Amino acid sequence: MDKWIYVLDMALSYGITGYIMFRFMSEVYDRKYGENFKYFISFLVFVVAAIGLNILGIPIFKIIFLLISLCLISYSLFIFDKKWMLIYDFVFALYIIFSDVISVVIVSLIMDTTIEGVEESFNFLFLSGICNQIILLCGFYIFVSIFKKNELNTLKIVQNIFLMLLAVFEISVLYYFYITIQQNSSGIALAYICFGFIGLDIYLVYLFEAISKRYQLEREMDLKEQQVIMQNTYYKSIEAQYDYSRRLIHDMKNHMQTVEELYANDNGDMAQSYARTIYRKMDELGSRFKCSNRFLTIIINNKLIKCDENDINVTLKIEDVGIEFMDFFDVTTIFSNLLDNAIDACLELSVDERHIEIKLFKFNDFITIVVCNSYNGKIDYKNNELKSTKEGEHMGVGLKNVKAAIEKYNGSIQYKAEEMFRVEILISSS
């Protein structure tokens, strides 16, 4: 009878653990598949494997199995940012381990026995399992709300390594104390350690969220400053065009008289050439590019001015597609960084080799952005990713920001280095 109680307890306990685990991943990650069958089969496999491994009675095997299961299920069934998957899974594993340890400690205190006494009694183990399930279910939504509120999207590699090492350290300490005191203590010290680790982990989540927000704010401030500079440059160019137009209009009467005199003196070819010069100067009065998106208009015209100053030939094939769904910070990030990179690449070449082509069009439900530029033939690839060849501490930051902005809209970016260096971006507009 006791054995059946033990099996029932294991099935119920790991069933609740598996349910909580899949709910956690569904809340924090995005599902890869629409059908529930694959997730249900994976849930059953986890529960059966966990029960089978628990029969061995080796705690460290249970911990390793839990960590491996979390990573495998996350990788195979959910969409996630690879940089943060290990962090989220490690912390969630700690939550499950803490719940299991605390439930054993609570039963040992209530029944006035040691941890070893709880493990040797089927009845006590059953009570411990029930207690563990209650803790998991009651604390789950609080735990998930902390994660969803504090998305650690901008943590650096050093902070990632620190969190993983901390998780390994906490698990090692818990395992050591669990083995050391289970024969002669009710586990009060172990409970204190568990609550201390929980408090530390929650504090670190909020601390790294503050760091993440600060980094994001600094990035937005840099983009805002960049936009202000571009707007000032654009407005100065408009003011210069206005002054130029006033002078041209003021002299228009004299220009027309000159054309008439050339025709009167049978200098038709010279008159036509003079007229074309006047038309060209009149065309220069307006902006070279204009669309319904004010920010894109400013960005493109600002970069065109920079290209003119550096004798870079520019070809525009831009349709007036709707990109209002994109945040103006992201529009600035994508176009400014790509065009700045293209201009920098052209500046390494002779004047007659400098050329940039910019395309923007919509095909089906996708916005397509293409930037082609001439370059010196040198491209730096590392781990199948394009790396910036610029010197300085911000090397490659622009390219990373472009990729991050595109991924917010489920977009993709590709690089092609042929006769021209080509960047192709696809962004879903739906």
Automatic annotation (TrEMBL):
Residues 326-427 form the Sensor histidine kinase NatK-like C-terminal domain. InterPro entries: HATPase_C_sf, NatK-like_C. Pfam families: HATPase_c_5. GO terms for molecular function: ATP binding; identical protein binding. The chain crosses the membrane at residues 6-25, 37-57, 63-80, 87-110, 122-145, 157-178, 190-211. Keywords: ATP-binding, Membrane, Nucleotide-binding, Transmembrane, Transmembrane helix. This is ATP-binding protein. It comes from Eubacterium maltosivorans. The lineage of its organism: Bacteria, Bacillati, Bacillota, Clostridia, Eubacteriales.
